[in-house]
Specification:
alpha+beta; 8-stranded parallel β-barrel; 11 helices; binds alpha-D-galactopyranose
Length: 691
Amino acid sequence: MPIYPAANRWILETRHTAYVFGLSAAGLLAHHYWGRRLPNPTDYPIPAEPTGYASTDGPDHFIPEEYPGYAGVKYIDPCLKVTFADGVRDVVLRFDSYTCADPQLDLRFQDAFYPLAVTLHYRIHPDHDLIERWVTLENLGSQPIHIERAFSAKWTLPPGDDYTLTHMVGRHADEFNLWHDPLTPGIKTIESRRIIPSHRAAPWFAVHRAAREDTGEVWFGTLAWSGNFRINAEVTEFASTRISIGFNDWDFGWTLQPGQPLITPAALAGYTPHGFGAASRLLHAYVRDVLLPHGKVTHKILYNSWEATLFDVDETSQAALAEIAAQMGVELFVVDDGWFHNRNWDNAGLGDWRPDARKFPNGLGGLIKKVNDLGMDFGLWIEPEMVNPNSDLYRAHPDWVIHFPTRARTESRNQLILNMARPDVQDYLIDVLDKLLRENNIAFIKWDMNRPASEPGWPNAPGDQRELWVRYVHGLYRVWGELRQRHPHVIWQSCASGGGRADFGILRLADQVWVSDNTEATSRLRIQEGYSQYLPAITMEAWVTDWDEGIVPLQFRFHVSMCGSLGVGGNLLHWSEADRALAAACIQQYKQIRHIIQLGQQYRLLSAQQSGYSALQYVSADQSEGVLFVFRTHIPEKFNIPQIYLRGLDPQSVYAVEGHGQRSGAGWMAAGLRVPLKNFESRLLYIKRIT
Ligand code: GLA
């Protein structure tokens, strides 16, 4: 599964796929092929040289360029748009050279006149069937070059204009809703302008022609970036479909200085002929194998006190919860918001990361000792990027926040955003959080981010203020990266009012994501299904809470959370003895199966976003065991229960499905089983290979 380099054509092959491009007669880097891997390199097509259409559209307009700059008589959505110091505003890229050190191929281009070098990087991930692309821009001259757009990649689909774009739309507490939009001529944009990827759009796409969960060709991708992103899905007037992905160029500006390259985030994409499920599993495996700091270790079952105590946190209240949690089998006790100086509600305290002396007269140490003595690890919530105007930090450094000096500083949740692009802010946060971690036995951090940017100003910025959008994220990565390096044992969770920062960039730093502030179990089924399109269960922290107490049985709520990394977040003081006993049993059961859920393969059998009766299956990597979850929410009584066809089993082996007898893997997959349920009933069935 190599890269076949040649003077003017490059073939990148993964285990099952191939991606091919080459130089056109005019010297443009043209896409040739993306799909199934073919037996021989000569099988991949070399497109005919275009001749143009009329004076309205020159030949270059028809070349599906890998990385088009704005230049010439071509009007394709460009990947690169620059202004040179003399005011020239196009970029004419000429191929210079390439280097290939499998699994990476770098192609270097230079502007025909100006000292701008552009290197396109390609890296194959053979076993994950993924191609990774990013770009380095270098100024080889002495005058600054202004960059107005610098995407990471353009992905060209096989010729045609009959594709559907599947993407996700959401809101706070209602993230990851799937949409399937037919692509028509023009550009469909999915983007964030909020400084985080946001709840509104996920940085993920899938393009297909009526693919389904297990069938159909899917070209899919994502961006490893935790800030503003843009996905432009373009269908040209000549039936060509292409997806660009990268930094959002809305309000983007970058002054490229000599000796200071701009490196774009990595775009990752893949192809499968086996539907959305296979696409998800490729991404899941990549996240676990390549991105996550602790991708091979299952997560501890945590308790988080947020929904139980809100800001009313002190040593006594937390210790009381910790005792019950430990009795139930919880392994990690997390104190959420409210523990730090002057934090009694959301209107004060952010920025002052030291324990509130009134609530914790013994520091955090007293509580941590109790938690550790109960046999649990201790975890803590922080929101480092934020500051309340009512805080010591803001009073000392009002200039540290993102703001325009002539505008009001709009507060949201009574807070402003620290300018993470500033090195002094980064250094301050590294110091204060490192101290917190050094002085306390903290095994887990929930890193929150609860408001999007407004008035995105950076007074006295060293360069173009619009660099803020990118430099903020670089600053965030630096602070978090430094802390993670100094404290490698800590498990980190990425939260942004729920799932507002769930991306392949943050998952190099965080092991988990807080998927949604909505912990109501039936909503969670839908949210979790969307999340699973690109992110694996090991990253999906899911608590059992009291939201739908009295409506949805506790068992059902546990089953929903057991589909990810199980946590508990209800007010345990109010749970009856029977509830605590049921919780303890579920926790015990989860401990037996969590390796299958967190490290295995996931199969979405019946969609919760499409029906009130849904099913989900996990299979261990060696196919020796599995788990089947089935849920019925509130649907008409006489609803016709669908057949459930298992997936991912070894067809030749015999498997027992708990309560349903034994059959071959082929039998369970072809003939399926029925799991009749009443409204708000759920089942967790263990699957075991017998022979
Ligand atoms: C955000 C998070 C919640 C909780 C609160 C605390 O809303 O998403 O889980 O941590 O902040 O203020």
